[in-house]
Amino acid sequence: MPGFYARYRDSVPPAVLLLDYLDREAELRSLAGDPAAVPGVVGRLSVTWAALRPRVIDVGGRRVAARFTRHVAAMRRLRRGPAGALQREAAAGLELVDTLERQFRG
């Protein structure tokens, strides 16, 4: 989906949509009882965030960037941990993605 949305003019970078997708995928993989897939998804989340973070800061999003950085660190800690904790953190990440979108839309 992020590649599809990249074709359209939008102030929200496609990478923000990718973060949304990856948090949801981690949550769903965990819910489906597929814990072996979660670390790879969390790895992609981490790499995607590392590339996007400077752009978030550039649009005045230092505070939300710090919050999302803490979220990614929590997901990395929980990727092999209790399913419920990972699912709750992924849901929190989805809410943060909404905040990131608002940051880019001004």
Which helices and strands appear, and what pairs or packs with what?
Blueprint: H1 2-5, H2 14-31, H3 38-58, H4 62-78, H5 83-105
Task: Give a brief description.
The chain has 106 residues and is mainly α. The protein has five helices and no strands.
If you had to describe this structure to a student in words, what would you say it looks like?
The protein is an all-alpha fold. The protein has one domain (2-105): Four Helix Bundle (Hemerythrin (Met), subunit A) (Up-down Bundle). It has helices at residues 2-5, 14-31, 38-58, 62-78, 83-105.
Structural class: mainly alpha
Strand content: under 5%
CATH class label: Mainly Alpha
Question: Which blocks of ≥5 consecutive residues have pLDDT under 50?
Answer: none
Rg over alpha carbons: 13 Å
Number of structural domains: 1
Shape: globular
Here the CATH topology equals Four Helix Bundle (Hemerythrin (Met), subunit A)
Helix content: over 70%
Order of helices and strands: HHHHH
Helices, by number, come to 5
Q: Got a strand count?
A: 0
Average predicted local confidence, pLDDT: 93
User: How far do the termini sit from each other?
Assistant: 23 Å
| CATH-level-2 architecture | Up-down Bundle
Major sheet summary line: none
